[in-house]
Amino acid sequence: MTESSLERQTREQDKAVRSRTARTKTEGAFRTIGEVAEALDLPQHVLRFWEKKFHQIRPVKRSGGRRYYRTEDIALLTEIRGLLHDQGYTIRGVQKLLREGGLAKAVKARAKSGTGSPLAASRQAPMKSSTAADSRQTGLPFDLLGDMGNLQKALKTCLRELEAIHADIVARHNR
């Protein structure tokens, strides 16, 4: 075997061991950064970067700086990943949603039900692709977008009324 194929084989064996370890842990067990990164299909450095950008992500840090993620952390990371990668949000947009509390209820619900964890999802039966797409489009971001659309219409109506009042005041003043 060449060195590169040996390295590849070692990486695949390591990945298989981590995958088995992730499946054998209980639902509420803490997860390492490697397990979470693998489950979310993200590099570990992205999770560390997100910790700096999203202060709501607070893994437990043990001696030596090892990170252990709780169910709530994983649910929040899953939601953030979906917003950034699937929905096209920017980091600032997700930060704003978190500041305004827009994600808090959804994340708590996911964490309690265990559906927010990709680790839990890997143990469940796979969903049909149409069902997965439908559930993605009825989540919190789409509800917020609907509410924002209604607010935008209401604000436009108010603006038109204010412009009419302003025009009336200006007309009276010029008389």
Structural commentary:
It is a single chain. The protein is mostly helical and 175 residues long. The chain has helices at residues 3-24, 33-40, 44-53, 71-86, 91-99, 104-113, 118-123, 129-136, 140-174, and strands spanning 31-32, 60-61, 67-69. The protein has a three-stranded antiparallel β-sheet with strand order 1-3-2. α4 crosses α6.
Key descriptive features of the protein:
2 domains; mainly alpha; three-stranded antiparallel beta sheet; Multidrug-efflux Transporter Regulator, Chain: A, Domain 2
What is the count of structural domains?
2
- Strand fraction band? under 5%
Number of helices: 9
Per CATH, what is the topology of the largest domain? Answer: Multidrug-efflux Transporter Regulator, Chain: A, Domain 2
Q: Provide the residue-averaged pLDDT.
A: 74
Q: Count the strands?
A: 3
Q: How would you characterize the largest beta sheet? A: 3 strands, antiparallel
Rg, Å, rounded: 23 Å
Distance between the termini: 95 Å
Query: How helix-rich are the residues, as a percent range?
Result: over 70%
State the CATH architecture of the largest domain. Orthogonal Bundle
